[in-house]
TrEMBL record:
InterPro entries: ArsR-like_HTH (IPR011991), HTH_ArsR_DNA-bd_dom (IPR001845), WH-like_DNA-bd_sf (IPR036388), WH_DNA-bd_sf (IPR036390). GO terms for molecular function: DNA-binding transcription factor activity. It holds the Pfam family HTH_20. It comes from Hoeflea halophila. Residues 1-94 form the HTH arsR-type domain. PROSITE patterns: HTH_ARSR_2. Coiled coil: none annotated. This is ArsR family transcriptional regulator.
Length: 113
């Protein structure tokens, strides 16, 4: 995976906003109409629609219009690239910390001798 993968940037950007994270938290329970998603935010509908557009551009939600009602649903598999990247970073840092721990133990043992 490229270091600056566009999809990763879109995902992290989408999750950077607390309103978008709360929308995703709600959608994790199941699909919902835009009006229901907008209600707890206290934001005007056009502002909520911009948030939904960011989530949709990142591939994290899918929307469907039926008459006058637009319904949003979460796309959980969109998080896979982010999860993969985070797992890779965790492995790198755990390895570094393990090496640091081994080095500190060696230094401490040498000081005791």
């Amino acid at each position: 995976m490229a270091k600056h993968d566009v999809d990763l940037s879109l995902l992290f950007h989408a999750l950077a906003d607390p309103t978008r994270r709360s929308i995703l938290t709600r959608l994790a329970r199941g699909p919902a109409p835009v009006s229901e998603l907008a209600e707890p935010t206290g934001l005007r509908l056009p502002t909520v629609m911009r948030h939904l557009s960011v989530l949709e551009d990142a591939g994290m939600i899918a929307t469907e219009k039926d008459g006058r009602v637009r319904t949003c649903a979460m796309v959980p598999e969109a998080l896979t690239p982010m999860r993969t990247w985070l797992d890779e970073q965790r492995a790198i840092w755990e390895s570094r910390l393990d090496r640091l721990d081994a080095y500190v133990k060696t230094v401490m043992e040498n000081r005791e001798k």
